[in-house]
Every structure is written in structure tokens, then in C-alpha cells.
Amino acid sequence: MPVRGESDLGDLLARVALGNHAAFKQLYEATVRCLLGITLRLLRDPAWAEEVVQEAYVAVWHSASTYSPHKAQPMTWLMTIARNKALDALRSTASDRERIVRPRASSDDDEHTDPPDESAGLLERLVQAIDAERLRACLQRLEPAQRQAIALAFYDGLTHSELAAHMRQPLGTVKAWVRRGLERLKPCLQG
Length: 191
Hints:
This protein is an all-alpha fold and 191 residues long. The protein is built from ten helices and no strands. The protein has helices at 6-17, 21-43, 46-63, 74-91, 94-101, 107-110, 122-140, 144-155, 160-167, 171-190. The longest helix is centred in the N-terminal third of the chain and has 23 residues, at 21-43.
């Protein structure tokens, strides 16, 4: 079953809440690129971002029963989990990140390893560039305040409260800008 929109994601989340592995796989395949993009933008390290996304999906599996469609759209809920996991990872100590997430090879090992195959990631970089250009074009269609609020929230990891303080606006106004901006982005990115 191809996933077409938020209602399909909501159905998948309901099935995941019941422990349906097939639904979880479909949910993962339908959303992983978006969630990886969010975490990669915050963490700026592909291996680290992939690990954090996996942690986010573990959290989704365990907390799918707590999802409420009355509080958030499915994709918003998933993006919030991924973003929070990325922010948690950023708050972890640098030594923990080095030891757990991205260990470095010693200089002795460097002599015996082959150089990385640059062509392997070429297609991936091209796809990312196309996606980034599409996102940039969609963001340009938003009102400046919405665009700034979304950029600060998702690219810089600011919370709603931090956005309100940074933009010197009431909390409710900032929340509305983000929500309405995301609502306007959705059809543009899906089209």
C-alpha cells in the first residue's frame, strides 16, 4: 500500500500502536528521508544522524499508542520525535559522541585503508541537492515571519519558547506561524 498523505500515516501509526511490523516498515519507508533530513541538518554528521533517526524510530515503535490525531498531524508528531532525539544528541557530552557514535581510526589504521569511493555517494548528493532546492523554493512561498520561524525551529533547533524570545513575539503567535507555515509547505513539498 503506497502512503499518500497524513491520513495514511495516521492509519499506519494506529496499526503500529497494535504492534504491526508491516505497518511499521511502511511508516519507516514513507518517512525516513524526511526525518533523516531534519536530523542531518541539526547534527551535520551523516552517521550520527542515521543513528539518531534509528533511535527516533525505536521511540515511535514504543510510543505509537500515545499518538493523538487531535494534537498533531502524524508527520508533525514524527518530525518532533526526530528533532527532539537530535537535540538530545547535541546536548550529550562531546566525549560520549566521539566514543559511541563516531569513533576515529588511529593513524596506524589509516595506512591500511582504501580511500573512500566518492562515486558511491554522488547520486545521494544529487538527490539531496534536488530535495534542498525544492524545499528552498517552497519556503520562498511562505510569508517572511513563517519562513523565519520554521527555519529557526527546524534548522537551528529552537523551541517555540526560544523562537518567541528570539523573534520578540508572543508564544501563541510564533506557534501559529510555525503551524500555518507547515500547513502551506505540505502541499508544495508533496506536489
